[in-house]
Amino acid sequence: MGMAEMDGVTVTDCERCPALCESRSRIVNGDGPEDASLLFVGEAPGAQEDSEGRPFVGRSGDVLNDALRDRGLSRSDVRITNCVRCRPPDNRDPHTEELANCRGYLETELARVDPDLVVTLGKVPTEHLLERSVAVTKEAGSVHDVRLGETTHRLLVCVHPAATLYDRSQRSTFDEALDEAVALVGAGAGDQSRLGDY
């Protein structure tokens, strides 16, 4: 196991996954307020994320940004992170060992941000955090209490924004899950100001 360093919620150095160290140009950390009520978890950075150093900046990010805006939120109101912080070669799914190597970083980030709701975007993060196989389209919008590290979080399952680009029928599933997420945080957050006016 290679050296790793974390400063608050930011991983500054990590050499745990040789294949990912080889394929990344940088570590892509979470983005957004460190006290966000709503935290989204994706799978891993793609080429554009690796290039810019921010999660969800490609076409999927545009879908997510537009969906947030439609609900009166901006990207700066939410935190967005990934299960794995380094780009897998050829945009393949992260391997089980890579997910495990990065898990402590995610748990630390979740504990420090302490969001009212964690929203998993797609199959990989949902299965990783629920630790079981999941039919995301069927379970989208469902809420679970899940223990991650030392803390328990409310987690809502959502399809990946990219799914809406390849299959238009996924759009309503995505929208309904996001509506549910915003309603849950709006209803349960005593601090409305963190979510803007909607």
Short description:
With 198 residues, the protein is α/β, with parallel strands linked by helices.
Description:
- This is Type-4 uracil-DNA glycosylase.
- It catalyses: Hydrolyzes single-stranded DNA or mismatched double-stranded DNA and polynucleotides, releasing free uracil.
- With 198 residues, the chain is of the alpha/beta class.
- It has a single domain, classed as Uracil-DNA Glycosylase, subunit E.
- Helix content is 40%, strand content 19%.
- It is built from eight helices and seven strands, in the order ββαβααβαβααββαα.
- The strands form two sheets. Strands 4-3-5-7-6 form a five-stranded mixed β-sheet. It has a two-stranded antiparallel sheet with strand order 1-2.
- It is globular and about 40 Å long.
- Residues 188-198 have low confidence and may be disordered.
Write the layout of secondary structure elements.
Layout lengths: L3 E4 L2 E5 L3 H6 L14 E5 L4 H6 L6 H12 L8 E4 L13 H18 L3 E5 L1 H8 L5 H4 L3 E6 L2 E8 L2 H6 L3 H19 L10
Parallel strand pairs: 3-4, 3-5, 5-7
Antiparallel strand pairs: 1-2, 6-7
Keywords: 4Fe-4S, DNA damage, DNA repair, Hydrolase, Iron, Iron-sulfur, Metal-binding
Organism: Halomarina oriensis
Family: Belongs to the uracil-DNA glycosylase (UDG) superfamily. Type 4 (UDGa) family.
The biggest sheet amounts to: 5 strands, mixed
CATH first level: which class?
Alpha Beta
Strand content: 15-25%
Give, in spatial order, the strands making up the sheet with the most strands: 4-3-5-7-6
Mean pLDDT: 92
Provide the CATH topology: Uracil-DNA Glycosylase, subunit E
Percent of residues in helices comes to 25-40%
Provide the CATH architecture. Answer: 3-Layer(aba) Sandwich
Order of helices and strands: EEHEHHEHEHHEEHH
CATH superfamily, by name, is Uracil-DNA glycosylase-like domain
Kindly report how far apart the N and C termini lie. Answer: 46 Å
Number of separate helices: 8
Low-confidence stretches: 188-198
* Inertia-based shape: globular
How many domains, as an integer?
1
Secondary structure category: alpha/beta
Rg over alpha carbons: 16 Å
DSSP E strands, number: 7
